[in-house]
Amino acid sequence: MESISLLWFKRDLRLEDHAVLKSMEQSKWPVLIFYIFEPSLIQNHNYDARHWRFVWQSLVDLKSNLNQKGHFLNVYYGEMMDFLKYLNAKFKIQTLNSHEETGLKITFDRDKTVKDFCKNQQIVWHEFQQFGVIRKITRQQRNNWSELWVKQMQEPLSFTDFQNFKSFPLELNLFHEKRIPADFKTYNKNFQPGGETMAWKYLKSFFNKRYIGYSKFISKPFEARETCSRVSPYLAWGNVSIKQVYHGLHTVIHDSNHKRDLLNFQSRLFWHCHFIQKFESDCRIEFENFNRAFDAVRNEENDIYISTWENGQTGYPLVDACIRCVKETGYLNFRMRAMIVSFLTHNLFQHWKFGVEFLARQFLDFEPGIHYPQFQMQAFTQGTNTMRIYNPVKQSQDHDPKGFFIRKWCPELNDIPAELIHEPWKLNDWEQTMYNCQIGIDYPYPIVDHEISARFAKEKLSEIVKSEEAKLGIQKILKKHHRLKENEEDEGS
Would the pLDDT of 487 be above 50? Predict the structure, then answer.
C-alpha cells in the first residue's frame, strides 16, 4: 500500500506565508493537496452561498497558482470523515497536515473526530498556528499576549520551495467536485471576488493610496467602502495572512505622510487576533451569554421586530440602508455593523441569538472568532465593557449627513432633501407629496421610538450589572481573558 501525506486546506487559501505548505518540503512521501466542501458545514445556519462562492473563486486561483509551480490541488465534495476513511482504505496515510482552526462548534466537533481517527490509525496530524492565536494559552502567555503578537508579526515571512516535494492529482468519483452546487461557481458582481491574486490587488491599492483618509472616514458608510482596506474577507478565508498585511504596512509607513492612518489600521490587525483569541479560549459564547446573569433578559422573540429588521424596514433610514447594503454586497463598515446590532438588541430588545446567524450569513468576511465576541460585546452581555446604545438618528446625521448612502439603498427616500432625510416620519402631508414618499406606504413609520426604547434597554441592563450574579460573572470573565483595553474594533478592516 502506497504511503502518502495529506495537506488539508481549510481557511488558509493561499500559497505564500503558509506554514503547512512550508512543512511539506520535509515530506518523505507524495503529498495529496486538497480542499473538501463539507455538506454539513455548507448547511450550517452561519453560512450562505456567498461564502462558498468566495471559497470556490479562491480555489480556482489557488489551483492555477499551484499548477504554475508543477503541483496539484484536488477539490472534493463530501464529509471529511467519510473522505478520510475512504483514503485510508486505499493508501497508507502517514501524516495529515493543516492549520489550526478557531471555528464553530461544528468544525470543532469534526476536528475532534478527525483527531481520534488519526490516533487510532496511527496517522500523525500536524497542526500549525494561525494568526496570533495561541491554543491552550497559559496565564503567562495571556498576560504577555500583545508582546507575543508583535513578536510573531515581526518574524520573517515563510516561502515554500515547491521543488522539494511531490504532489499528485487524484480523481475520486465518490467525492467529485461536480457535486458542488452550481451557484457556488456562478460569479456575482455585487461581491468581492475571492483568491490570493485579488487579495493582493486590494491590499496594494490600499497601501498605494486608498489608506489616505482611513481615520477620517472609517465610520462613514459611504466613504469607508473606498478608504477602508477591504481585505477582511481575504483574511477571513486566508487568502493573505495577518503577518503579510503587517509586513506590507511596514514597507510603506516610514515614507508616508499619513502615518496616523496606517497606525490606526495596524491596531485593527491586533484586535482581529485578540477577538479570535477570546473565542478560542471561550467558545461556549457561540451559544451562551458571556455573562450568564444576562440570561434573565431579552428572551421573548418578537418575529415582527426581527423580520422587519432583517428586511430593512425599521423606519430608520440609516439602519435600513445598512441592512439592505450588507445583504446585497456582503460588506459594511464596523460602526454601522455595531449600530445595526445595537438597534436589534437594545432598541428592539431582542436576544443576540435572534440576529447573530442572520448577520453571519450576510458578512462575506464572516470570521466566527470575531463575529460572536463582537456581537455579544455590542449586545452588552459581558458587563465589563462600556454599554453602547447607538442613536440611529444621530449616527445618520453624523456619518451620512448628505444622505448619499441612504439614497443609494433606500431609493424610496431619494427625493427627500438632506436636512429631512434622517427623520422622514416628521414630514408633513405637503412635504410627503412634494418628495414622492408617503410615510406608512412608500416607507414605514419607525417600528419603535428610538429614545424611549434606548432608555428602557439601558435601565434593564444596568439593573442586571448591579446584581451579585453579574458581578461574579464579571470577575470570572476578567480572570479568564485578562483585561486588555477593548475599544470595539472590527472584523471589517
Answer: no
Question: What are the Cα distances from residue 251, in Å, to 111, 241, 259?
Answer: 37, 16, 12
* Beta carbons of 439 and 445 less than 8 angstroms apart: yes
Distance CA 90, CA 165 (A): 21
Per the domain annotation, does 308 fall within a domain? Answer: yes
Name the DSSP class of 69: T
In CATH, what number is assigned to the domain containing residue 432? 1.10.579.10
Of 85, 110, 130, the position where a domain reaches its end is 130
Going by pLDDT thresholds of 50, 70 and 90, the confidence category of residue 131 is: confident
pLDDT in tens, 412-441: 999 999 999 999 999 999 999 999 999 999
Does residue 199 fall inside a structural domain? no
Tell me the CA distances in angstroms from 4 to 62, 63, 91, one per residue in order: 21, 20, 7
Task: State the residue range of the domain holding 477.
Answer: 284-481
For all residues of the chain together, what is the average pLDDT?
95
Cβ-Cβ contacts under 8 Å for 313 (sequence gap 6 or more): 320, 444, 447
Give every CB contact of residue 225 below 8 A, 6+ residues apart in sequence. 331, 333
Task: Find residue 127's DSSP bridge partners.
Answer: 98
What are 128's strand-pairing partners? 99
Average pLDDT of the segment spanning 27-50: 98
pLDDT number for residue 493:
42
- Per-residue pLDDT of 231-248, as tens digits, reads 999 999 999 999 999 999
Cα gap 308→296, rounded to integer Å: 25
Whether 196 is covered by a domain: the verdict is: no
Q: Where is the domain boundary, 90, 109, 130?
A: 130
Domain membership of residue 44 (yes or no) is yes
